[in-house]
SDR family oxidoreductase (Nostoc cf. edaphicum LEGE 07299), 244 residues
Amino acid sequence: MNYDIKDKIVLVTGANRGIGKALVESFIERGATKIYAAVRKLESASLLVEKYGDQVVPIRIDLNDPQSIVTAAQVAKDVQMVVNNAGVSSGSTPLAEDAIASLEFHMNSNVYGLMRMAQAFAPVLKANKGGVFAQINSVVSLKAFPSFATYSASKASAYSITQSLREMLSEQGTIVLSVHPGPIATDMADAAGLTEVAEPPKLVAEAIIEALKNGEFHVFPASVARQIGSAYESFASNPSLALR
């Protein structure tokens, strides 16, 4: 199904920096009429408002605060596309003393936050003729790395939820995307020591727009993601292989 972002109203979580900020900027460049910039602190979206005026509407969403998500869905009743980009990332191995606490920390934002967003906004998208729900996952949802095991596990869980959302929301005409970036030039990448291999966040926005045009579910932005994605996609696109 082809979907054009032009003239659409979009909500982006984690919109004040990194991938989220690039999504806001790219979507406006491609003709989106209004972007709800969902942030934990409204003042953090001030630079976007200064740049784009009333095309950007700051709205409070904290994935760890369920009521903030419910309230946002009641305010943004006209939204046609939701991109759940916000999340948390830190490193912990399965054998670390803080491993359980680390996994709980990641699951609360990266998985339960996704579920809260879907539960709150699926009815809004349905009322607005279906629209799009895009989840920013990661290549680590497909290939875990020991130093980031708890983060990887949360993203694998988020990917599993995203697959289920795809089937369920298709019944109401909502397109679901699972976006799997590799190292992207963000604060998270810097903290993980991936600065030298990180690629521009704008590539994520471009890949989402292209996937919507081509009717794709999996989105693998930039070179590292495409390498991992190409090894995985033949399996993912042929569910019958899982039964052999």
